[in-house]
């Protein structure tokens, strides 16, 4: 390897470390409750980098927060998909598909994700619809993908049935999420988690039995 190549590799490695340090620091500040309202100086101090380094990697604090939320959301979505795809593919029925999805909802840390996003977005302000729109978009993001996966793994399940089922559960989760936030303020203590489990049970029962 030439000297120039080694130098380029070291620069690339340093750049990657700085980017990771910035994202990890932002996640820590959000988790601690500082929300997305932390300053560039706070982020730079926590990440042990300069202000200039932050702007070499990201356009703004919002850009940092959006990237962190995408990473957290990706981890939760992958966990959800792992549960959905854990069983063997087969002919499948609506009842079996419903059971698979409800198991995934119960096994995934949905309230943790909701609380993190709520803090990251700075809560919901009636004067600013953007945070709520981003929040709602997170629940719409995976509906088509999960419905397709469900239909593929259950050959007897009509694709439309799969999409309707996933949509009902995911949008219902969005509804109970906002209800849960209004009561708990994004707390994740045992009483808040117990409330989430109760709301989720009510959602599952409502979708399962109809009206």
TrEMBL record:
Give GO MF terms, alphabetically.
DNA-binding transcription factor activity; transcription cis-regulatory region binding
Q: Does the keyword rRNA-binding apply?
A: no
| Annotated ranges, domain HTH tetR-type | 16-76
Q: Which residues bind DNA?
A: 39-58
What Pfam families does the record point to?
Answer: TetR_N
Show the InterPro entries listed in the entry: Homeodomain-like_sf (IPR009057), HTH-type_TetR-like_transc_reg (IPR050109), HTH_TetR (IPR001647)
**Which keywords are on file for this protein?**
DNA-binding
| The protein, known as | Putative TetR-family transcriptional regulator
